């Protein structure tokens, strides 16, 4: 079974992903900068909104895997100082205690290697806060000097359950061979989740490569409202923002052979 994970930035986006066939969601804010840690309020609202949906029947063999929260204290690189790591650890602790089913973390050294000390801190904080939580290493993985060496190190450490990766390329669809290699190297010990610029047309080839999951944002741009355009007349639509596109989620699920959980978007 190839799982479908949708990156969402709102409670409504999470419900849309659930209804249209996703197996789990990654909750974040600020997709415009590739995602940041969401607020406590957003997580609480998202969990509450899903609570009424998750008890409903689901397809055999595809249990709902819940809300996995991105932990990224700032935009930019993934080399963190002591204060930033302390912030990230506090965020991990808070979201696990609030009921997140997983955390999505990552940190690198100046030399482009996995920061094992930082990863150990974040993963152990997560499991001390909620023993059943799963840990994903995010696309900082693709910025390592060698993705095969990075995966070997993660396998040896035994701290993460899955890796989100574009196979070291700008988009996962350009790295089918590399992703197949990672899946073979992992041999089921760590899930390989293909993500980064995934198009609907890429899904069959990515699935055939043997990845364990597909990750995409399935977003569309929503028009802004109010008077902000008048305040910034040089912008096309300064109030525009991203929302989860139900049609794109449903099509991604269909490409994986998954029907909408409740017959499609409500």
Summarize the structure.
The chain is an alpha/beta fold and 266 residues long. The chain has a single domain (3-255), classed as Copper homeostasis (CutC) domain (TIM Barrel, Alpha-Beta Barrel).
Account of the protein in words:
The chain has one domain (3-255): Copper homeostasis (CutC) domain (TIM Barrel, Alpha-Beta Barrel), CATH 3.20.20. α1 (11-19) runs parallel beside α2 (40-51) and α3 (82-98) runs parallel beside α4 (116-129). By secondary structure, the chain is an alpha/beta fold. An eight-stranded parallel barrel has the order 1-2-3-4-5-6-7-8, surrounded by six helices. Strands 9-10 form a two-stranded antiparallel sheet. 35% of the residues lie in helices and 16% in strands. It is globular and about 45 Å long. Belongs to the CutC family. One of its GO terms (molecular function) is copper ion binding.
pLDDT < 50 stretches: 262-266
Mean pLDDT: 93
Order of helices and strands: EHEHEHEHEHEHEHEEHEH
Principal-axes geometry comes out as: globular
Quick one: CATH class?
Alpha Beta
Strand content: 15-25%
Name given to the CATH architecture: Alpha-Beta Barrel
Helix content: 25-40%
Number of strands: 10
CATH superfamily descriptor: Copper homeostasis (CutC) domain
Q: What structural class do you assign from the helix and strand content?
A: alpha/beta
* CATH topology (fold) name: TIM Barrel
Number of DSSP helical runs: 9
State the distance separating the first and last CA atoms.
25 Å
Radius of gyration (Å): 18 Å
Largest sheet features: 8 strands, parallel, barrel
């Amino acid at each position: 079974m190839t799982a479908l994970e949708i990156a969402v930035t709102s409670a409504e986006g999470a419900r849309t992903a659930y209804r249209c066939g996703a197996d789990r969601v990654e909750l974040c804010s600020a997709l415009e900068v590739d995602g940041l840690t969401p607020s406590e309020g957003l997580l609480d609202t998202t969990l509450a909104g899903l609570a009424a949906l998750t008890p409903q029947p689901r397809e055999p063999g595809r249990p709902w895997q819940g809300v996995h929260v991105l932990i990224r204290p700032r935009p930019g690189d993934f080399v963190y100082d002591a204060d930033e790591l302390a912030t990230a650890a506090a965020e991990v602790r808070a979201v696990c205690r609030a009921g997140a089913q997983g955390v999505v973390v990552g940190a690198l050294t100046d030399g482009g290697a996995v920061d094992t000390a930082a990863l150990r801190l974040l993963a152990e904080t997560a499991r001390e806060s909620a023993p059943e939580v799963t840990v994903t290493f995010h696309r900082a993985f693709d910025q390592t000097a060698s993705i095969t060496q990075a995966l070997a190190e993660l396998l040896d450490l035994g701290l993460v359950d899955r890796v989100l990766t574009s196979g070291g390329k700008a988009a996962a669809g350009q790295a089918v061979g590399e992703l197949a290699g990672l899946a073979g190297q992992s041999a089921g010990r760590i899930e390989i989740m293909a993500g980064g610029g995934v198009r609907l047309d890429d899904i069959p080839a990515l699935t055939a490569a043997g990845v364990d999951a597909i990750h995409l944002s399935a977003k569309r741009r929503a028009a802004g409202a109010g008077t902000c355009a008048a305040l910034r007349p040089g912008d096309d639509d300064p109030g525009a923002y991203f929302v989860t596109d139900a049609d794109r989620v449903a099509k991604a699920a269909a490409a994986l052979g998954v029907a909408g959980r409740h017959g499609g978007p409500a």
